[in-house]
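Late entry, evening session. Most of the bench is empty. Finally got around to the prediction I had been postponing all week. Sequence below, unchanged from the version circulated by S.P.
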Amino acid sequence: MAAVPTNNSAAYDLLLRGDFEERRAEDELDLAGFDRAQDWYEKAIAADPQFALAMARLVENRMQRHWFAEKLDPAQLQKVKELAERAIALSPDLAQAQVALGTCYYYGYRDYDRALAAFGEAIKLQPNNASALEYSGYVHRRQGKWQLSLEELHQALERDPRNAALAGNIAGSYNALRMWKEADDASRLALKIDPNASDAMGKGVCGVRTRKPAASLGARSSRRE
């Protein structure tokens, strides 16, 4: 049985409020939305200073903001990394804390080996952790390990079947590989999950129609990737 993340119901409510703002911020790549989520997570930690999951969520929030909205400076990055390490120290068996550390290495330092090590540790702790599998897939894609990346992204989608952005990213991988049918299938799935899924339209359907590969995967063009 999974451990209760906090015994403080008020802190947990604040976490959920942060999660709501974070999902919306990631979907819209909204700087103000990321900051609203940060505020809720910080309030959750203030309510329960031992709340490792809230710390992990705050780390992911800061790294998403860093990657998609506004860069953190080296001192700020170090503080975020220390918060991830604090979450791990408080809750060594919390997979999401390892995911948070992995995002620091991935988004903050472009240290793919250490990012993969952290995501791998998360998977050891929780084999069905969709986030760890998804991030591993993105790192391996950047390393040019396409088959392994696609396997991990599909495994992540099996565990998180309502993730339209993930399906859109799978479409983007197939499009870059000129696997047009697979790209079309994945993009249509993303649009079925969310008719407003920009990843599906930009990386899948449009690529299939023009028979052109996707833009460089180094671009910051979609949620998480």
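Two things to note before I forget:
Confidence is low (pLDDT under 50) at residues 212-221.
The chain has two domains: 9-126, 133-215.
Will write this up properly tomorrow.
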